[in-house]
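Colleagues,

For the teaching module next term, I've prepared a clean inverse folding example: a structure given as C-alpha cells, and then the sequence designed for it. I'd like students to try predicting residues themselves before seeing the answer, so please don't circulate the second half yet.
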C-alpha cells in the first residue's frame, strides 16, 4: 500500500495504490483520512481530487478491521470544508462506490462501471450507499444497482460531467470551476418524485420477500428510509443492517464460497505461467457441444474455425450454433445485427491444415476412444507449435490423449458440465507434463468465457461427476425405500437446489445417464439397479413420456405408476435402500451424501481443498449458493448430526474418517485441505 499527494496549481490530488484491487483496508482508510486532514488544513489548496493508481478505482471489499471505519471515512469526506472530487475509472465497487458517493462531485472515465457486489455475499453497503445513491438517482435505479450486485455504467445523474477520455483532466477542470462543497446528504434530486420513489420501494419489497437472505430486504428498507428518515438515522439503519447480515449463517457461507471461488483459480500447474494471447480458435468435432463451444468463443470475441470432415457432423455443429443464436435473437437477449457480426468471425468449413494458423485448438468430438486417438494424433502433427490444446469431455483422461498426440506440454483437459454454452463451471485436468503457460492460457480463456474454473479430481469422470453419482445413488435408495420422485424433487428444490434432480435425470434421458456412467467407468461400471430396470422397461424419461416421472405437454405430472411398480420389484430383489429417512430428512440426507463424497475425495488426496468441492457442487450441481456448498453446509448443520444423516443415505453407508477427525479436533470440514 502506498499513498502520495500531487499538486496541480491549487488542487491537491490524493493518489493511492493497494494492489491488486485497491481495496479500502483499515491501514489505507487511516492513511486517506490523514491525507484529507492535511490538505484540508493546507493553505493554498482550493479543492481535493481522489484518484487511485492502477486499472480500477476500487474493485473489492476489505474487512472492517481498524479504528477508522469506512462510514467514518465517508463522513469525513462529505463533511470536508473544501470540494472533494472523485476521479473514477475502471470498476468502482463496494467500498469504492461508498467513497465515490461521499465525494461532493464525481467524474468518470469512458468504460467506468459501478456496482455493489456485497449482496453476492449477503452483505448490504456499510459506507452510506443506501442513503446517498437514491438521493442522486432515485429509488428504482438505486435498488437495481444495490440488489443485483452486477456492475453497470453510471447514470448521468450519478456524475457531474460527461464521461471523459482523460478523467484526471476532467476532475481538475471541475475542481477549478465548482462553486464549493456540495454534500450528497443534502441532495434531493432523486427524492423529488415521492410517489414514484415509494412505488419502486414497494415493488422491491415484494420481489425480495421470503428469500433466504436478510440483506435484500434490509437494503430495500434502508432505501425507503432515505426518503422518510433523517440522513444520520438512515446511516445508523444501514450500519445495523450490515452488522445483522454479517452475523447470519448464510453470509458466512457465501463469504466462504466467494473465497473458495477465488482460490479455485489457483491451479498449481499454472504457477509462474504466462497466458498467451488467444485470438483465433479451432473447434473440432461433429457434435452439438462443438457448436456450443463455438458460440462461446464467438461471444468472447474470438475468430472461430470449425473443423469437421463429415457433412453430417458439419450440419450438427452449424445447426446447433445457428439455433442458439436465433433463439437469443427471438428472446431479445441479442440483436440480429450483433448475431450477424459474430457470425462473420466464423470459418464454417475449416480443414486440419488450418490448425497451423490458430492459437488454440478445442476438441469436442464424441467420446469414442478410437476416434479420439486418431483425432489427437492428427492434432499433434498439424497444430501450430506452442498452440494450446484443449480436450473436452470427462470420459477419456488427458493423460491418454497426451500419449497419442505427443504434445503433453500443450494439452489441458477442460470439461464443462451441462450445455457447453451455459454451463457455469469448467473442470481443468492438465495432462501430466503440461506447461504452466498452457494451463495459464486455458484459465485466461475460461475467464473470457465467464466460467468458474476448478481443478478436476483425478477420478473417473472428475469432480462434478463423482458428486453427481453420489447424489444419484442416494436418490435411488430413497426411491427404492418408497419416497416418490416428485416428493424428492420438491424437498430438494425447497432446500434450494436450482433444478429438481429426478426431473433433470428424466430430461437427460435415463438411457443416456446409464450409457455415460458405463463410458466413464468402463468394465468397472457399478450396477444401478433401479435405473437399469427402468431403461430395460423402456421408461427412459421425458422423451418417451415416462421415466422416474410422468411427462405431459406442460412438463412433469407426478411419479410414473409404472416406475413405482419397478421400484417395489427392485426393493424386493435387494437393491440398496435408505431406511429410516422421513420426508423431513430427504434434503439433509442428500446434502450429507454430497459432503461425504467430497470428504472421501479429500481423504484420498485427489481433491486439494474442501472449497473446491463446494465450488463444484454449487456451479456444477446447482447446490444452493446461499448455503455455500455441501462442506460448509455440513459445518453449519453440525458434523455429528451430518455424520448420522449421511449414514442413512444407503444401507451400509460408510462415512469418511475426516468427519471423526474434524469432530475430534474441532476443525471445520470446509477448512480441510489435502
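(Answer key — instructors only)
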Amino acid at each position: 500500500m502506498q499513498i502520495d499527494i500531487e499538486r496541480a496549481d491549487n488542487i491537491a490530488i490524493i493518489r493511492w495504490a493497494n494492489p491488486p484491487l485497491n481495496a479500502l483496508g483499515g491501514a489505507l482508510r487511516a492513511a486517506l483520512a490523514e491525507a484529507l486532514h492535511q490538505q484540508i488544513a493546507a493553505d493554498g489548496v482550493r479543492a481535493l481530487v481522489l484518484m487511485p493508481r492502477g486499472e480500477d478505482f476500487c474493485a473489492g471489499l476489505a474487512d472492517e478491521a481498524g479504528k477508522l471505519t469506512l462510514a467514518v471515512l465517508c463522513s469525513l469526506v462529505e463533511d470536508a470544508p473544501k470540494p472533494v472530487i472523485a476521479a473514477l475509472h475502471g470498476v468502482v465497487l463496494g467500498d469504492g462506490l461508498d467513497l465515490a458517493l461521499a465525494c461532493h462531485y464525481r467524474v468518470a472515465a469512458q468504460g467506468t462501471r459501478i456496482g455493489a457486489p456485497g449482496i453476492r455475499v449477503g452483505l448490504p453497503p456499510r459506507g452510506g450507499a443506501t442513503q446517498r445513491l437514491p438521493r442522486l438517482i432515485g429509488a428504482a435505479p438505486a435498488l437495481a444497482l444495490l440488489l443485483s450486485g452486477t456492475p453497470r455504467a453510471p447514470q448521468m445523474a450519478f456524475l457531474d460531467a460527461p464521461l471523459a477520455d482523460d478523467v484526471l483532466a476532467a476532475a481538475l477542470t471541475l475542481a477549478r470551476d465548482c462553486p464549493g462543497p456540495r454534500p450528497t446528504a443534502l441532495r434531493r434530486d432523486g427524492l423529488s418524485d415521492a410517489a414514484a420513489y415509494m412505488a419502486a420501494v414497494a415493488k422491491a419489497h415484494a420481489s425480495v420477500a421470503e428469500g433466504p437472505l436478510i440483506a435484500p430486504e434490509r437494503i430495500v428498507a434502508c432505501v425507503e428510509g432515505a426518503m422518510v428518515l433523517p440522513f444520520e438515522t438512515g446511516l445508523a439503519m444501514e450500519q445495523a443492517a450490515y452488522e445483522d447480515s454479517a452475523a447470519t449463517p448464510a453470509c458466512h457461507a457465501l463469504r466462504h464460497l466467494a473465497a473458495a471461488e477465488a482460490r479455485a483459480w489457483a491451479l498449481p500447474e499454472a504457477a509462474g505461467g504466462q497466458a498467451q494471447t488467444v485470438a483465433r480458435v479451432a473447434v473440432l468435432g461433429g457434435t452439438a457441444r462443438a457448436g456450443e463451444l463455438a458460440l462461446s468463443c464467438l461471444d468472447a470475441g474470438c475468430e472461430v474455425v470449425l473443423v469437421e470432415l463429415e457433412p453430417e457432423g458439419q450440419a450438427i455443429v452449424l445447426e446447433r450454433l445457428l439455433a442458439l443464436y436465433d433463439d437469443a435473437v427471438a428472446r431479445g437477449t441479442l440483436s440480429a445485427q450483433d448475431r450477424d457480426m459474430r457470425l462473420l468471425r466464423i470459418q464454417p468449413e475449416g480443414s486440419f491444415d488450418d490448425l497451423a494458423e490458430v492459437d488454440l485448438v478445442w476438441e469436442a468430438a464424441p467420446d469414442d476412444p478410437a476416434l479420439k486417438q486418431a483425432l489427437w494424433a492428427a492434432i499433434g502433427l498439424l497444430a501450430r507449435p506452442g498452440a494450446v490444446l484443449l480436450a473436452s469431455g470427462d470420459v477419456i483422461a488427458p493423460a491418454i490423449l497426451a500419449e497419442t498426440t505427443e504434445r503433453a506440454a500443450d494439452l489441458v483437459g477442460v470439461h464443462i458440465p451441462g450445455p457447453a454454452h451455459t454451463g457455469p463451471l469448467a473442470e481443468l485436468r492438465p495432462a501430466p507434463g503440461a506447461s504452466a503457460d498452457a494451463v495459464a492460457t486455458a484459465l485466461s480463456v475460461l475467464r473470457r468465457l465467464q466460467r468458474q474454473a476448478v481443478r478436476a479430481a483425478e477420478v473417473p469422470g472428475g469432480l462434478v461427476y463423482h458428486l453427481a453419482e453420489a447424489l444419484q445413488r442416494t436418490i435411488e435408495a430413497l426411491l427404492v425405500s418408497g419416497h416418490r420422485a416428485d416428493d424428492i424433487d420438491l424437498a430438494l428444490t425447497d432446500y434450494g437446489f436450482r433444478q429438481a434432480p429426478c426431473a433433470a435425470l428424466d430430461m437427460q434421458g435415463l438411457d443416456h445417464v446409464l450409457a455415460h456412467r458405463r463410458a466413464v467407468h468402463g468394465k468397472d461400471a457399478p450396477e444401478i439397479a433401479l435405473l437399469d430396470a427402468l431403461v430395460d422397461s423402456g421408461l427412459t424419461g421425458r422423451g418417451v413420456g415416462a421415466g422416474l416421472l410422468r411427462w405431459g405437454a406442460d412438463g412433469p405430472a407426478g411419479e410414473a405408476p409404472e416406475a413405482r411398480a419397478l421400484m417395489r420389484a427392485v426393493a424386493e430383489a435387494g437393491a440398496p435402500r435408505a431406511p429410516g429417512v422421513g420426508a423431513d430428512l430427504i434434503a439433509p440426507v442428500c446434502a450429507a451424501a454430497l459432503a461425504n463424497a467430497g470428504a472421501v475425495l479429500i481423504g484420498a488426496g485427489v481433491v486439494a481443498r474442501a472449497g473446491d468441492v463446494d465450488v463444484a457442487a454449487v456451479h456444477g450441481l446447482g447446490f444452493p449458493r446461499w448455503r455455500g456448498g455441501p462442506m460448509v453446509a455440513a459445518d453449519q448443520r453440525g458434523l455429528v448430526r451430518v455424520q448420522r444423516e449421511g449414514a442413512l443415505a444407503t444401507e451400509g453407508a460408510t462415512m469418511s474418517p475426516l468427519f471423526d477427525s474434524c469432530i475430534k479436533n474441532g476443525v471445520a470440514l470446509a477448512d480441510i485441505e489435502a
